Amino acid sequence: MEIATLSKAIAIGLGSIAPALAIGMIGSKAMEAIGRNPEASGKIFVPMLLASAFAEAIAIYALVIAFSIK
Amino acid sequence: MNTENTTELNTVTTNSSTQETTVTVPEYKTEEISHESTLYAEPIFHIGDFTVTNSLFTSWIVVFLLVIFSLVIKLKLKKIPKGIQNLFEIVIEGGLSLCDQVTNSRKITNKAFPIVMSVFLIVLLNNWIGILPFGGFGLIEMGETGKMFIPLIRSGTADINGTLPLAILSVLGANLFGILSIGLWKTINKYVNLKALGGLFTKIRKDPTVLMTAPIMFAVGLIEFIGEFAKIASLSFRLFGNVFAGEVLLASMGAILAYALPTPFILLEVFVGMIQAFIFAILTLVYYTIASLDHDEEEGHGDEEGKLKGAH
């Protein structure tokens, strides 16, 4: 196997571990918050999406690196 | 997006000599028509020297649809809503109240809403038009490895040239909005903190700690300036990455087992397209809100917000 292909796979694979954990934590905490106070679900939704968008950005950086490895 | 007469998995690799990305595929018989998911949008026709790619073509269709649709609704606008106007009033009402949650003030919402909503609609339609089965319409051209299939429709957001201008537009627009709402001097001071440097000379007698804080404030301003470019990068790459990865995913799933396997993923892509359009629009709105808030008068703003919340 070519080393470039392998390095691409490693870049995106390792790079998406942390964002995956982060998004999982954001989701679980949001669920917990909604469970404690169901009326606040509308208020929680937008900040939750924003936070997960920021966490996801890290994975996107890894994706860009994976694409740019030659 | 779809493979015709081939069952090979598409693998995307980057050419070492040029920036262009090419796809390595196993050897083809000349009769077979191949299609690869390329990182760049494929050109479909030329107007003079201007190359029109399929992504650009699709974004034109989206803009055309939006203009026609909004004109039709605008011309049929009535005081007592009926039919499709009802639906759009619900959408606008919902959007406005959602924006209020972010901005905390109807004044900012009313100013930023037209831009944010149009960005949302353009991104959403672009994302969804890529999933529609129009991907089968296309041109067949002679490529390097044989006959190539080039689809006419490819999401405008599945091309970095489509998402980068949108991101630049929203960040530049946020700064313009800041200049219009809190003034040029305060907006410049956010990035090149002349006020803090000036404070070195005016405040040093009363408060010697300014010697420490002013350089830090200045450095923070410079970091904020770099942060603006990070905003552009993350906005554009997030959208591009999600939509393009979706197209590659659908293509590979279709290659493994046609019809049955891609169906749940198409539903996933519908969802992803909506969420990404929503995130893009909400982040644009957040940038607009941050740009329009004055850090020196935060306490005053707090009072205003309290009053607004009380009124609701």
What does the model show?
The complex is a heterodimer of chains A (70) and B (312). Chain A has 70 residues and is an all-alpha fold. In chain A, helix 1 (3-15) runs antiparallel to helix 3 and helix 2 (17-36) packs antiparallel against helix 3 (41-68). Chain A has three helices and no strands. The longest helix of chain A has 28 residues, at 41-68. Chain A has a single domain (3-68), classed as Up-down Bundle (F1FO ATP Synthase). Chain A has helices at 3-15, 17-36, 41-68. By secondary structure, chain B is mainly alpha-helical. Chain B has one domain (12-66, 95-294). Chain B has nine helices and seven strands. Chain B has helices at residues 54-75, 84-103, 106-131, 160-182, 184-191, 194-202, 210-256, 262-292, 298-311, and strands spanning 12-14, 21-23, 33-34, 43-47, 50-53, 138-142, 147-151. In chain B, strands 3-7-6 form a three-stranded mixed β-sheet, with no helix packed on it. Chain B has a two-stranded antiparallel ribbon with strand order 1-2. In chain B, strands 4-5 form a two-stranded antiparallel sheet. In chain B, helix 2 packs across helix 3 (106-131). The longest helix of chain B is centred in the last third of the chain and has 47 residues, at 210-256. The interface between A and B is medium-sized, with 18 and 22 residues.
